[in-house]
Design a protein that fits this description.
The chain is of the alpha/beta class. It has 10 helices and 10 strands. The protein has helices at about 60-70, 105-125, 140-150, 175-180, 185-195, 200-205, 220-230, 235-250, 250-270, 270-280, and strands at about 35-40, 45-50, 80-85, 90-95, 130-135, 140, 150-155, 160, 200, 210-215. A 6-stranded mixed beta sheet has the order 1-2-3-5-7-10, with helices on both faces. A 4-stranded mixed beta sheet has the order 4-6-8-9. Strand 1 and strand 2 form a beta hairpin. It is globular.
């Protein structure tokens, strides 16, 4: 496929003066189909933009594969510090492409779709850098699952969240895995049984998202979080994220045992000792951003 070029960008991530912030790039060429996702990276922040607004950014198998590739590319590079997932258009994601889920596609294809989706959702939680969902619109079914799977989620006041699969005869069982771990059980069950959307403010109240902001401040607020993460030590953040996920699946006593050991391991990191020295010496730490040990 011929190389395609982005129009000249303005600012950190603003792609043109006329395009809405963080909704995705405009392409100079209109002769070739646009990619399903767009990956941009600057100053440690990787943006992955769902880029199929005409199909409501449905998580088709192709979209999921593209998203997986964007997540995994150079994921262990020291230059990558945080990932932001956003979308073009008024719908963040409508979930799976139902045209791929008909009997004509067959059980093997259906299995591949859900296996790939589960892989993407677990990758988001397993990669060593934080992943932020930036939502400006509707997130339903697997789209809501995507938001719930992210480490942090910032949404505009107009955004809504739902699991309406029950209304089309396909219960949102896989979205329930992520949503049921993000919100209280009875809230999740009401969402799953009725398919009724919840507002951004209710999503915040129940813990599905981290922050609700006015639409005009979405870019500013999201980048502020990302840039704050970039100021921390990469290996310390990676260790903390992995430990948080592991201990949340454990009982209380096992979780304390896990976390206590990791605190000791964290202290053995070069950056762990640098941070403590900087605090004592009343200066800013100078991170190596390498997983090197200061002592055994």
């Amino acid at each position: 496929m011929a190389r395609r070029f982005l129009c000249r960008s303005v600012g950190v991530f603003r792609l043109s003066r006329t395009s809405p912030p963080l909704t995705g790039p405009r392409f100079c060429s209109q002769t070739e189909p646009e990619p399903l996702t767009v990956k941009l990276q600057n100053n440690g922040v990787r943006r992955i933009i769902l880029n199929n607004p005409k199909k409501r950014n449905a998580l088709s198998l192709s979209m999921l594969e593209s998203l997986r590739e964007n997540i995994l590319t150079d994921v262990d590079s020291d230059d990558l510090r945080v990932v932001i997932i956003s979308a073009r258009g008024p719908v963040f994601s409508s979930g799976h492409d139902l045209k791929e889920l008909t009997s004509a596609q067959g059980r093997e294809y259906h299995t591949k779709v859900f296996h790939t989706c589960s892989e993407v959702m677990t990758l988001i939680q397993d990669i060593p850098v934080p992943v932020i969902a930036m939502v400006n619109g509707v997130a339903t079914a697997a789209g809501c699952q995507l938001v719930a799977s992210c480490d942090v989620a910032v949404a505009t006041e107009k955004s809504t969240f739902a699991t309406p699969g029950v209304n089309v005869g396909l219960f949102c069982s896989t979205p329930a895995v992520a949503i049921g771990r993000a919100v209280p059980r009875k809230v999740a069950m009401e969402m799953l049984f009725t398919g009724t959307p919840i507002s951004a403010h209710d999503a915040l109240l129940h813990g599905l998202i981290s922050k609700v902001v006015p639409e005009e401040r979405l870019e500013e607020e999201t980048l502020a979080i990302a840039q704050r993460i970039c100021q921390a030590s990469r290996p310390v953040v990676a260790l903390g994220k992995a430990t948080f996920q592991r201990q949340m699946a454990q009982g209380r006593d096992a979780a304390y045992a896990t976390a206590s050991k990791v605190m000791v391991d964290n202290l053995a990191l070069r950056d762990g000792q640098e941070g403590i020295r900087a605090f004592i010496e009343k200066r800013k730490p100078v991170w190596s951003n390498k997983a090197e040990k200061a002592h055994d």
